[in-house]
Amino acid sequence: MEKSFDLSLVNDFISVGILLTAIALNTLERLESCVKAYTYNSWLLFLLILVPAVTTNNPHLYVAASLTLATKGIVIPLFLRKIVYQQKLVHQVQPYISNLLSLTLSGILITIVYASLSKGISVTGFSNHALKISIAVILIGLLIMITRRKAITMVVGLLFMENGLFLTGFSLTSGMPVIIELGILFDVLMCVIILGVFIIQIRHKFYSVDLDKSTTIHDQLTTLKG
Amino acid sequence: MSGILLLLFIPIITAILCYSSYNRREIEYINLIGAAIMAIVSIFVISASLSAPIFFFLGMFFIDALSAYILSIVIIVSVAVAIYSVNYMGREFENRLINVKEIRHFYALLHLFIFTMLLAVVSNNIAIFWMAIESTTIVSSLLVGFDKDKASVEASWKYIILCTVSLIFGLLGIFIIYYASSTVLVGDGTLNWTELREIAHDMPPETLKLAFLFILVGYGAKAGFAPIHNWLPDAYSQAPTPVSALLTGALSKCAFLGIIRFAILGNECLGVSYCGNLLMLFGLVSMGVASAFILVQHNFKRLLAYSSIEHIGIMAIGMGIGGFWGIYGSLLHMLNHAIVKPLLFFTVGEVKSKYHTTLIDKVKGAMFVLPVTSTIMLLAALAITGTPPFSIFLSEFTILKAAVDAGNWVTFSLFIIFAAIIFAGFLRNFGSMVFGKPNIDHDGQEKKEIVKKRNKMGLGIIVVMAVIMLVLGLHIPGFLDEILKSSVKIIAGE
């Protein structure tokens, strides 16, 4: 009994850490720091899976943890860092809204999640807060995607959403079958690589990865001239 | 079982062979032969699966009548696209717009795309279905951005970001279903759809409602439902024409299959009204948005993209009304749309490569420049708006009959209004393209012998599809009726 109590406490600490890295994303000014925040987030996710793996000695959880570390903790951050360093442009994030407003919105999102999930789905003894935090991380990731100008910050927001989703899956079900986790991680990896290819192409075509400057196609609803 | 494995491996092998060859003619032959073998093998697989569902790989994959039906749609569209691609890409190559390296990439990606769709259709495990749909996004975004110019890179960026974000919500829905199943089964849950269906009665209804909402958003974006359709006009208009045809003909049906599967689970637990009403709402919104944009459109590929949104809406309305005829009409509409819309894309692809524009205003008198193609284009445009005696009229009429039977007059009247607006928009735009005085020179003398031969092949597939379009409007063959009835039985329950 005492051991499981400890476990839940450790898990709560780690999930709060995951939430904090997501909140920190709201105020980070440089692209490098965003990638760093993502790396910390992934490592915390790895720890969160590792702790129950060690306590229950479940080989399936070890596999899930090491896969998370390999893809989300190492390969994707290295790839993103390479793209950021390749850009040779302004490394500022340049959000549409001020950092203060962004932080406030994140706070409101977290409050809404906590208020709406206070009853309803009961979590199977894994951690009291992991589910709420995971939904909050997904929403903050979405907020980051909407309010940032650069292509790469969109990808970082997407990755935060993915991490939040993994946390949700983990806290709801304490681990999916390994083959599913492997497949999903592979999909995420491929997705990030393809998005990286597109970021490079966008830079070549538009000489900028500012998505504002790259809107050329839209519905032409006015009469065309000529 | 071995037949299904073979069917899955054929597109992969074709893709590898296309990638490893450096000769254009060789690649084109590999593409055609691969598509032909795939079609032949699929006939055996589909006919074997009609009597009883086939399971394989620990029950993670299976084919029942419903997936066999969608599978046949995917195969038909893929074969047509494989034939048409030879025509289209060959012309791009001769105009020096692409080189052999890009042709290799194109055919390899095309067959990988077909493979991911086949994988999605035959998966029983809902998470593997999700992975396959996510892989279709990844592969087809490379195809959408194939031209590598500003607009197509932007379109594919939008496509992959929007679809991935909504698919994240779809995966959340899958996690919630898994959680619901683990509360029923006590211990490890299940992700196999057939097992989920058996325990769906006992699942907590509120949880299932939440899961269905997430799934509807996730796969709905991929299928092209209205509030989350923003990627679709850009992707369809910027992709090479064969890819647009494959996206609208096959991919949107695969995504819609995911929604149907979850609606079945939802119906088992919540009764038919919850999922049905949501589908009907999304369908009507899609039709409304599409009708507004079709009326004022200046680009004919975007026009067809909005028409795809309309038709996925019609399928959702049919599925939402439910009952035997609603579901029957919706399923029949899938096949009809999968034949008529690629046909329209093929014909406008011919027009586009003749006039070098996608703007409606700049195309005049296509009837005199491309007589056969534009006649079929006009017929297909009439067909897609639901004019008798073509196939789409039959399925739309069936859906409307179901709406009247259910006493659903609001849906009925909105459907009629939107369909009338879309009819007007189509006729105005396509009429101005087909008739009038030609605004380009058309002398057919510069055609080389080889170009002629290839054009014959593209024209051949266009004529064949037009014939299918007409025949299905007049008569539904017995085997089609049988497979439709057993699919309806799966969806509506025994």
Task: Provide structural commentary.
Chain A has 226 residues and is mainly alpha-helical. Chain A has one domain (2-214). Chain A contains seven helices and no strands. Chain A is globular and about 50 Å long. The model of chain A is unreliable at 221-226 (pLDDT under 50). Chain B contains 19 helices and two strands. Chain B has a two-stranded antiparallel sheet. In chain B, a hairpin with a 4-residue loop joins β1 (54-56) and β2 (61-63). In chain B, α13 (323-355) crosses α19 (478-492). Chain B starts with a helix and ends with a helix. Chain B has a domain at 276-494. At the A-B interface, α5, α6 and α7 of A face α5, α6 and α9 of B.
Summarize the helix and strand pattern of chain A as letters: HHHHHHH
Strand order of the largest sheet of chain B: 1-2
Largest sheet of chain A: none
- Detail the poorly predicted runs of chain B: 444-448
Specify the overall morphology of chain B.
Answer: globular
Total DSSP helices of chain A? 7
Q: Mean pLDDT of chain B, nearest integer?
A: 87
Number of domains of chain A: 1
* Residues in helix, % of chain B: over 70%
Number of strands of chain A: 0
Query: What oligomeric arrangement do these chains adopt?
Result: heterodimer
